[in-house]
Amino acid sequence: MKGLKSTFKKVWKLIVLYLLIIITFSYAMFQGGFVSWFLFYSFLPFAIYALILSLYSLNQFEATRVFQKHEYNAGETLKVEIRLKRRTSFPLFYLLIEDCLSDQLRYAQERNRAKSFLFPWFKKEMVLEFEIHGLLRGEHHFPTIRLKTGDPLGLIEKEIHFQTNQKIMVYPAYEDLIYRPFDNHYDQGMTASKERVQRDTSMAIGIREYQPGDRFSWINWKATAKRNDIMTKEFEQRQSHDVFILMDCAPSSSFEAIVSFSASLARAILQKGAQVGFLSSSAERISIPIRGGEKQMMQLFYHLAKVRDNSPVSIDRVLEAEGFQLQKNTLMLITSQLTRNVIEKAGLLISKSGTVTIFIIKNEMESLSQNELSLKSAANARGVRVVLVHNGNFKAVFSEVARA
Q1: Other C-beta atoms within 10 Å of 173: how many?
Q2: Domain ranges of the chain
Q3: Smallest Cα–Cα separation from 393: which of 367, 358, 356?
Q4: 2.40.128.270, 2.60.40.1120, 2.60.40.10, 3.90.640.10: which CATH number matches 58-171?
């Protein structure tokens, strides 16, 4: 129906053009005089150009879109270059070039023009450059490039769409964190350790010089007395240190901050040499098994780039349903709301899991409410650690934990 309407519109405009030529010619013939013939000959060039343009095909154009790269982090600037080439130099009065963006990019804040109005005339090659600031997280598609031209009087218009089907991936923004695991998996207490996460304090394999962060109990007094320098025990490295991250995907104004902190935390743990598993409670359940290495990081970031805050259930119900999978590992829960049900479900995992830490994501300068402070005390009594995280200040998380 739409195609039939477009065809009818083109035919009608062409009929109008012929009628105007006939009317002006008839007026000059029957009226006579300088004015009538001047009007006809003045209109004739525009009419002839419009007739030739009606026969001109835009299919001779070649349109290509060029990106500097295809992978970005949220908040970065995307630079796009559209290059046009054509085989003939037929004069075009104007040319409208538009990059048809996805809805998410089209309505993004501070987006620049993805449309340009050019006067190419005889040019065979043209370039359109534009930028999109503050890229949003996600997979963004660039389906088509639209070209439109016409005659000066607007009697004839021609339009074409070039299918490109290009896309870019925008990963979540992250901050560089220094991950410090909790000690109470191996020893008593809830302080943060500055040691490598894979150190096993149950078996000493040698001695070395003292380093900041070494414990008092690790000092080898015989070697210290013999060498007149503080020496500590060197311990065997464990094969793995499993951490499981559970991210709350309930609708929240802080969801982008939750995703960003999840990416920062997972990256820091993997760079420390530990292994990470991941579970998101979105509309589609996504569970990533515990693994380490660069490949695991890329898989996590790819999922975090596409995840949405559309969870049909609350995070406490996810804890209850996934308890069997979560109870075997150190659990880190990332959410924006602290509730009693969450604390109760997390407390049930304490005896079976090494540690349970709940990170509460808040906006900058936002603090915990009185109800949340009382819930935090109740969580500490159950052995569940609650850590407040401010958006934009992720780096302070583990340093504050170390001082706690």
Answers
A1: 19
A2: 58-171, 199-237, 242-403
A3: 367
A4: 2.60.40.10
With contact defined as beta carbons under 8 Å apart, do 173 and 130 qualify? no
Residue 28, number of CB atoms within 10 A of its CB: 18
Domain 242-403 sits in which CATH superfamily?
von Willebrand factor, type A domain (3.40.50.410)
Helix or strand (DSSP H, E) at 126: strand 125-132
Backbone angles phi, psi at 236, to 5 degrees: -70, 140
| Tokens found for residue 391 | 């958006």
Measure the CA–CA gap between 29 and 175, rounded to whole angstroms.
80
Tell me: the pLDDT tens digits for 233-272?
776 544 446 788 999 988 888 899 999 999 999 998 888 8
Question: Exposed, middle or buried by CB within 10 Å (0-12, 13-18, 19+), for 236?
Answer: middle
Nearest to 148 by CA among 176, 170, 120: 120
Quote the CA–CA distance of 147 and 275 in Å, as a whole number. Answer: 51
- Fold agreement between 58-171 and 242-403: no
The DSSP bridge pattern shows strands 78-86 and 61-67 to be antiparallel
CA 227 to chain centre: 55
- pLDDT band at 403; cut points 50, 70, 90: very low
161-188: pLDDT as tens digits: 999 888 999 999 998 888 876 554 433 3
Q: Token digits for 284? A: 């589609």
* Per-residue model confidence (pLDDT) at position 400: 54
Ramachandran category for residue 331: left, alpha or beta (phi over 0 → left; psi -120 to 50 → alpha): beta
